[in-house]
Amino acid sequence: MIEPSGWFERRRLLNWTATGLMVASTAGVVIVLLLILGQVILQGLPALGVAFFTRPPLPDGSAGGGVAQAILGTLEMLIVGGVLAIPPAVATAIYLSEYGHGQLARVVRFSLDLLAGFPSIVIGVFVWAWLVREVVGDFSGLAGGVALAIIMIPIVARTVEETLRLVPDSLREASLALGVPRWKTIMLVVLPTARAGILTGIVLSMARAGGEAAPILLTALGSQFFNLNLLQPMAALPVQIYQDSRSPFDELHAQAWGVALVLIVLIALLSGLTRLILGRRLHALSR
Amino acid sequence: MSSISVLDAGRAVAGSQHIVRGTYRGDRIFSVAVTVFAVGIPLLLVAIVLLMVLDALPSITRYGFGFLTSSTWDPATEQFGAAAFIYGTVVTSIVALLLAAPVGVGCALFLAEYAPLWVRGPIGFVIELLAAIPSVIYGLWGLFVLAPLMGRNLLVAAVILAIMILPTVAAVSREVLLAVPNTQRDSMLALGATRWETVQVAVLPYARAGIAGAAVLGLARALGETIAVAMVIGNSSTRISGSLFTPGYTMASAIADHFTDANSSIYFSALVEVALGLLLVAAIMTVLARVLVWSVARGPAGTAVGAETR
Questions:
Q1: pTM
Q2: Could A115 and B41 be called an inter-chain contact, meaning their C-beta atoms sit closer than 8 Å?
Q3: Which of A6, A144, B207, B228 ranks highest by number of CB atoms within 10 Å?
Q4: ipTM of this model?
Q5: Which strand (E) or helix (H) includes residue A177?
Q6: Are A157 and B272 an interchain contact pair (Cβ–Cβ within 8 Å)?
Q7: Which has the closest alpha carbon to A256: A18, A54, A43?
């Protein structure tokens, strides 16, 4: 006999080693997150104050400036992006879940996947080459909004399509059986039933788009001034972090951490909120 | 009052179907409208590719293949070659994947095979959070925490990229592992195998293609990552050197660093060509990853597994 006890020992040891490595990997992931979050909170908190939220930056990194113009810019571009992205994305989702079964639907789905897979810088370059250089002639908040819209469309379309598919067919059938036209069935029965999922898709896409730096840098460039004109360069929070971090001034570095904290809190709030809504809603739907 | 017979009801249903199909004008308009929007998606895609090809054409015709092999990027003499950018992209992405893949897959294995249920939720949330952090914040962290220790070079960029693609690799791998049928595990366990032997013999081989897909998705994300890389990679050299400790550029970070200088039309064209290259590689990888992941985890039609963690 080959010594079975040694053999068992080896198998046990291997099993424990493998388990240990997996636990270590998981711990590593958690630790990295804690390190980054900790740093952002530690460095970001001292930068926050009334001026931070109410004033634009002061020249050459003098103390006392803020990032209010970037908060406004991010809001403006998110609104433009949302207005441009949500109607076509929801319509596409309706097409895919309610009408699309053939070749065309496959092409549309494939296009959405490709679009979602494009690096955001590519979308930035597209809008830069088209809107900034050919149409408007300058960096602009409008171009930033368009870039964000292109980033948001596949996210919204896919989330909404998935939610629409969760709406039970019995609801559609009940409505159709009452003689309600199909379009009214979709608008008055299917969409309202799925509204939590639609809202989630929209909020998620905004959380994603609001954190994008590269495409906004290439299209809206960033700015030190309050700006309500969509045809002029516009500031945004992520771009503010990038530009502050490249400046030589400690004051601006501190400000960058502050902006990072604000961004993370915003995104955590948004995704936490959607998790809450969606979790409860899906539960209700599946019952 | 006569009661309605089954036959009448049947006719009524047939009739209403007729109405639904043909008679309501609102239905026509509505279905045409949503179809038009849906067709707009592939058209948008075509428009993006077409415009970029057109804008890149001057550079493509002027430099040809030399664009890919030359590492001279000199606006003064209008000599543009992207070899150094391509090199930086490939090196940082591959090193990032080598760092992230074992950890990501290990984490996925833990979540799918080992972790008690009460741990899965919170760790899943941690992964989601990691995926949701904007890349500029990773860049900031890399610039002020890692760079003081390691300098600004290809290696730091790779480490930051590794952290950024970790959630992608982990989340997609986990989905793939969860799609492995339990009969695979049960039969191994029934034979008296340890947990690890079960994973090694029955789970991993089954999930191999899907895990490869997760890695490709991670790689695709690393290739296109811009701002975080631009913040830590150094942006100061266009020479190709064998060392990971030299500053450099990736294709994406070069675009972000140069776009404001693109005054001449050929400079602009060269930058668009770099972006076009990124687009093509990303498209190929998206398709490849989809095929790989689908071969294991066939989700509902049209849902790309892992796309939400991008």
A1: 0.90
A2: yes
A3: A144
A4: 0.92
A5: helix A169-177
A6: no
A7: A43
